[in-house]
Amino acid sequence: xxxxxxxxxxxxxxxxxxxxxxxxxxxxxxxxxxxxxxxxxxxxxxxxxxxxxxxxxxxxxxxxxxxxxxxxxxxxxxxxxxxxxxxxxxxxxxxxxxxxxxxxxxxxxxxxxxxxxxxxxxxxxxxxxxxxxxxxxxxxxxxxxxxxxxxxxxxxxxxxxxxxxxxxxxxxxxxxxxxxxxxxxxxxxxxxxxxxxxxxxxxxxxxxxxxxxxxxxxxxxxxxxxxxxxxxxxxxxxxxxxxxxxxxxxxxxxxxxxxxxxxxxxxxxxxxxxxxxxxxxxxxxxxxxxxxxxxxxxxxxxxxxxxxxxxxxxxxxxxxxxxxxxxxxxxxxxxxxxxxxxxxxxxxxxxxxxxxxxxxxxxxxxxxxxxxxxxxxxxxxxxxxxxxxx
Length: 390
Ligand SMILES: *Cc1c(COP(=O)(O)O)cnc(C)c1O
Fold this sequence. Notes:
Elements: E1 3-4, H1 15-21, H2 40-60, E2 67-70, H3 73-87, E3 92-96, H4 101-112, E4 116-120, H5 130-136, E5 141-145, H6 159-169, E6 172-176, H7 188-191, E7 195-199, E8 210-214, H8 240-278, E9 282-285, E10 295-300, H9 305-314, E11 317-318, E12 324-326, E13 329-331, H10 334-338, H11 343-346, E14 349-353, H12 360-380, H13 382-388
Parallel strand pairs: 1-11, 3-4, 3-5, 5-6, 6-7
Antiparallel strand pairs: 2-8, 7-8, 9-10, 10-14, 12-13
Pyridoxal-5'-phosphate binds at residues 72-74, 77, 100, 102, 147, 151, 176, 178-179, 199, 201-202, 210.
């Protein structure tokens, strides 16, 4: 048995995407030119690049010129945050305490370089309060960066409300939409954002390709210097095959978003209802309605999420935990801690992230496996027995 429920970490490449990429992989009998070259070989590559730019722009409701292709979502986050920080006089940045490390560690880096950063709190469901953004903005604020949907618990932030505030105050607004792109509507004008990050490998595209939407007129400093690629914002010969793959993956995700969203939501609810019916001491993390369709985060109280992960892995089932292994110590998830989950409970969290391949049968199999693994762990946990009185 092999069941993959870790789609928020990465997804498999779709057959249609591989097909679209194949002519651009760089073989002699395909398209191998440098997209910046003037000759026919270059023009062929540029055609692939332009087509992908149009497809990604269509998915975001922006102009193709506003798309900058990057080497990954992490790079797009770095370009947005450092790019704005370096291009503006103000040295204050506002973000949240539940961002992906691509944002958090970039902000922490800038703090070490003399910038000041405000990390906004979230409520018990993982929601940021737009009023907190309003109050945190000062004369010195150059950037607000708030993720669209959280990768661990799936909570969707009130991006448009925050965007209206930043626009009124004249502050650049970035959102990391890596988890929402392809799963939720991400029209940049409706979201009211100036910068938006996305990544191909989270939407059944290839690894090592991302993009940053840059609203026309947004002042941004490049991080990579060299040729005049990507409107001077990202030097380096473009990964044409990867970018073509991103374009195709985006197009397919948009076409299937609604139906696939409904399908995985039903599967996710079925998984949660089964877990809640079979087991004591479980709690669901995240927002009851403002949530990604595919993400279920559960705390198994007084257990170690890692133990459950490894038990499932031994049966061929892939899930993840929010905890990061730093110097052999298990740190509970920064997202759950920010949501006010006690550290001892947060340790027991497991994330199930469903995807296109997930079936009813798989959900039933996972449910059976989880129950079979968790019950003996609970019986062997003195803390669980003591707290639950069983
Ligand atoms: C995966 C992810 C990233 C990083 O994207 P890469 O392409 O893997 O660098 C950034 N933000 C969020 C929310 C993610 O889930």
